[in-house]
Amino acid sequence: MRDMSYHAPEAEKERKRLHKDSSDVAPMDFGAGSQSRSRTIADIARSALKRPRHARALAALSDHIGAKHVLELGTCLGITSAYLAPHAETVTTIEGNSVLVQRAQKIWSRLGLLNIQCIAGAFDEVVPTLPVQEYDLIFIDGNHRGEALIRYVNALAPRLSAKGIIVCDDIHWSTDMEAAWNALRQETRWTLKVDFYEWGLLTANSDLAREFHSIRF
Ligand SMILES: C[S@@+](CC[C@H](N)C(=O)[O-])C[C@H]1O[C@@H](n2cnc3c(N)ncnc32)[C@H](O)[C@@H]1O
Prior knowledge:
Elements: H1 9-19, E1 24-25, E2 39-40, H2 41-47, H3 52-64, E3 69-73, H4 79-84, E4 90-95, H5 98-111, E5 116-120, H6 123-126, E6 135-140, H7 146-156, E7 160-169, H8 175-185, E8 192-195, E9 199-203, E10 211-214
Helix pairs in contact: 7-8
Bound molecules: S-adenosylmethionine (SAM).
């Protein structure tokens, strides 16, 4: 039976622990937002992870659509994956930084989350080799450059289930990301498009009206 509470107190304890972790992580160049200097785990945990209310919103969305298979681009320290895991059969998540992959895996193991598979590698290389044919919820949360966002959406659209949803994070992070989001939402393949400011949602679900909404919360 699915867990109907979207709070994840044990994952939040892990987040608190990360906030106190001063070990360094070497930088990797993945595009926008990449740092040229090493950063501490605490820095990364404070700046890169979804806040609890947004992680809960994603978990609720997964639950609402009855998602079986969830895909996340950008694992980082695995906190959002930990929120999603109780609300899906499988969570596949991709991360290019192997230090973060190891840290995330340790966290999931402590939390007893057995349905998360983290694939280490660059998004462009991993996406064509994904293990599940169709995903019901795809969360794109890494490499916030407009051209990359469009590339990932194009590569992943054929892997989205008929009623599936793509959530594009940080669509207002830069003018470049805004332009990419505006181009994506005007594509005729999508029916419902929603701008939640924090992220943009796209679906090709043919049961839904062809509409665009902007909802700020
Ligand atoms: C914003 S963080 C993800 C946060 C995570 N979704 C959460 O809320 O818990 C983005 C992550 O994507 C990774 N990343 C960025 N570009 C990437 C790329 N092209 N290939 C693989 N990983 C990438 C970064 O190393 C970083 O850990």
